[in-house]
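Reviewer comment 2.1 asked that we show a complete input and output for one of the modelled complexes. We chose the glyoxylic acid case, as it is the one discussed in the main text.
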Amino acid sequence: MRALLCGSFDAAERDDWLQALRQAVPEVGWCLEPDPEVEVAVVANPPPHQLQGLPRLRLIQSLWAGVDRLLADPTLPPDVPIARMVDPAMSAAMAQTALWSVLSLHRGFFRYAEQQRSALWQPLPQRRADEVAVLVLGLGEMGRRTALALQAQGYAVRAWRHSGGAHAEPFEVGSGPAALAPLLGRSDIVLNLLPLTPATRGLLDQAFFAALRPGAALVNLARGAHVVDDDLLAALDAQQVGHAVLDVFHTEPLPPEHRYWRHPRVTVLPHAAALTDPRSAAQVVACNLRALRGGEPLQHLVQRERGY
Ligand code: GLV
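Response of the prediction step:
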């Protein structure tokens, strides 16, 4: 089997991936340039047009968990299955970043960092974790794992998803647009882990922020395009949003002149909440390549019409 590795990574990153993939699936012939024999494309946000003209292509395996940029390529072969990356190491890293954000907001650690800059010694009131209501938006692999990790620390966790039926979860789950505003009004911290789809793009807008408890915090670890930046900045300036932890942005890297960098109540991360780890992700790729060869069901297939 011949497999193509392509994406928007630099040469060092590409070599790391190639090494990890060769180790995980040595029986596959790996190449870096498209050729007509390619049956599998393992991709990390490849530039548009890269996957055109591959007559034997049978699987597009993303190295990214979010496939929004991949699906935006109008030249993507329409009938080839796409699998997204679901890597337990990445979900664990995401839950850690979420936990750090929630703990820092709950216990005032961002405020202490600010106080230190002016040598201000001022303990803040301390609440118990069960007095802090955290709403997790999105209940995929990462959302669920994060919600459970926060619940294990004692937080009052609820979750919301844009669509989907009722699954038994050990926390309250709201589903569908009508359920969102009531949940926002009951939350101290809202943590976004939704997939970016036409239905969720721009969801975090003026109406969303107006529905929050005054002073609630936002943690966005999903995609920048979920947020209407001007609406978030207005909500921050009006103290309707007390603090925002942002890992993802409309334009990445975040341009140096962007207001987020210097806003006193915004914490900026460089899209680093959960990086894909070549060692564990290569094992996930290996499972799907072996399933493809053995005619077994593929894991984590994307439903294109749904957008994830
Ligand atoms: C990172 O944002 C990913 O989608 O893998």
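The radius of gyration is 21 Å. We note this here for comparison with the apo prediction described in Section 3.2.
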